[in-house]
Amino acid sequence: MKKALIICTVLGAGFFSQAQTTIVRDRTIEKMVNEVSVDSLQSYIDQLVKFGSRHTLSSTTDPKKGIGAARNWVVQKFTEFARKTNGRMTAFVDTTTLQPDGRRINQQVNLGNAMAILKGTDALDKRIFLISGHLDSRVTDVMNAAADAPGANDDASGVAAVIESARILSQSAYPATIIFVAVSGEEQGLLGAGYLAEKAKREGWQIEAVLNNDIMGSNNSSETNIIDNTRLRVFSEGLPAYELDKKAAGIRGMGLENDGPSRQLARYVKEVGERYVDHLEIKLIYRNDRFLRGGDHTPFIQKGFAAVRITEMNENFLHQHQDVRKENGIQYGDLREFMDFEYLRKNTAVNLACLANLAGSPGAPQELKIDVKNLTNSSYLYWKAPLTGKPKGYYILLRETSESHWQKKIFTTETSLRLPYSKDNYFFAVQSVSENGQESLPVTPQVGR
User: Fold this and answer.
1) pLDDT value at position 8?
2) 18 and 53 share a domain?
3) Could you say which of 48, 289, 323, 333 would form a disulfide bridge with 156 (CB–CB 3.0 to 4.6 Å)?
4) Are residues 88 and 70 in contact, defined by beta-carbon separation less than 8 angstroms?
5) Is residue 1 part of a domain?
6) Neighbour-count burial for 202-227, b at 16+ CB within 10 Å, e otherwise
7) Count of C-beta atoms within a 10 Å radius of residue 392
8) Residues 358/269, Cβ–Cβ less than 8 Å
């Protein structure tokens, strides 16, 4: 069940009024969430399935079949939405040439990611928020580029979420930039995401968050036969994969093994997603990904970006990585008939709400510190205003060290505050909040004296 955070407002000198509060939804974001359409999602998936195999090694030149036709169609949809943005959104296929690698690429490949960039309105705001799904599909043999591979759930569902998010979000303007991308080469080794993450790192993109959607539209599992469209998983790493050796001492010193950037992003997805999407519980899975599997968020994590994987609660392996066939009365294959489009609507809405909230928020607080020079049973936090945006104020988040989720949010208009909570017993973070209540990602404190 959902748990509401306790919202506290500063009254003065260490005293707080406390009440169990239902977080108020921003009406604009609520309206956008309500615009997510089951019919649109169905139409996107139907079209993607019609391309036959979307295998990375399939044709890039056939106008009706293969990965090339699929990526061109996605860009066509992005371009259609972009026409109404007065030039703020651009769409294109970002390509690179891959040579045979002796593993899952046995020929020269024109690899292309279908992308759209919705440019932020604040020239000083360099923040980028990225949503992805993977365009390619496969059957049992990962090298079989000829067989029909509908890939309805893996991962036309994620691509459909990207397209629908682009359709709705492109109708509004945000200070920060949002990138929508359907990557290729996932099944061959996260190749498209790897190419994009490397490019982003090389060119200094300020990617604040990556929401990777992969297998998110089916409500039932194999083996256990569980049917449930009320829960959604978000996978996140704990200790950072990027430069852990340089960060380990600080993490150990503050006890922040459970508070890396991707873990903080996952908590944000849970709070905002459950705020706006009814009848959905977001389950935080404290692993980077599932056993024996991998997702397109991982190359971004390896380059130091905060990234999470969003995926359905109960996977059905009869409909993943399977030749389309019927054996012993059992239908195998990733077919549209096994989709739950109402579930996909809710999961898409989670992405949309988070992106709108993030891109509309002020920048995160700067140089957050917690004072540790004295032995006290209180905690003194201080910080600087964000580099971009004009926050209405700040939320101080806190939770007991044994708790996974934030328990309280304390609002203040100041840039420092002493709290009647022991720094030994609690974890803290601070986020900026806009006039409309849109919060930045939380920042955890460094030691200050």
Assistant:
1) 62
2) no
3) 48
4) no
5) no
6) eeebebbbbbbbbbbbbbbbeeeeee
7) 14
8) no
User: Do the Cβ atoms of 445 and 370 come closer than 8 Å?
Assistant: yes
Domain boundary among 359, 379, 403: 359
> Do residues 165 and 310 lie in contact, with contact meaning Cβ atoms separated by under 8 Å?
no
**Residue 425 neighbours by CB distance under 10 Å:** 12
CATH of the domain at 404: 2.60.40.10
94 within domain boundaries? yes
Range of the domain at 19: 6-26+365-448
Return the CATH number at 116.
3.40.630.10
Question: What is the domain count for the chain?
Answer: 2
- Do 416 and 380 lie in one domain? The reply is yes
Judgement on whether residues 242 and 378 belong to the same structural domain of the protein = no
CA distance 3 to 358: 21
Angstrom distance (rounded) from CA 184 to CA 160:
14
166 located within any domain: yes
Helix (H, G, I), strand (E, B) or coil at 440: coil
Q: Calculate what percentage of the chain has a pLDDT beyond 70.
A: 95
312 and 395 assigned to the same domain: no
3-state SS assignment for residue 430: strand
Question: Would you give the distance in Å from CA 18 to the centre of its chain?
Answer: 31
Rounded-to-integer distance, Cα 196 and Cα 305, Å: 12
Identity at 430, one-letter amino acid code: V
| pLDDT bracket for residue 423 (50, 70, 90) | very high
Q: Which of 330, 359, 388 is the last residue of a domain?
A: 359
Averaged pLDDT for residues 25-34: 97
Q: Report the alpha-carbon distance of residue 318 to residue 140 in Å, rounded.
A: 11
Peptide bond preceding 141: is omega within 30 degrees of 0, i.e. cis? Answer: no
Q: What is the pLDDT of residues 269-281, one digit of tens each?
A: 999 999 999 999 9
Written as one string, the DSSP assignment of 275-327 is HHSTT-EEEEE-SSS-TT---TTHHHHHTT--EEEEEESS--GGGSS--SEEE
Q: What is the C-alpha to C-alpha distance for residues 354 and 271, in angstroms, rounded to an integer?
A: 9
Residues 351 and 392 in one domain: no
Confidence at residue 22, expressed as pLDDT on a 0 to 100 scale: 47
- Indicate whether 147 and 229 sit together in one domain: yes
Residues 329 and 434 in one domain: no
Token pair of 377, please?
């049973």
Please report whether residue 31 resides in a domain.
no
- Beta-strand runs (E) in 74-203: 89-98, 109-118, 127-134, 177-183
Q: What is the DSSP string of 423-444?
A: TTTEEEEEEEE-TT-PBPPPBP
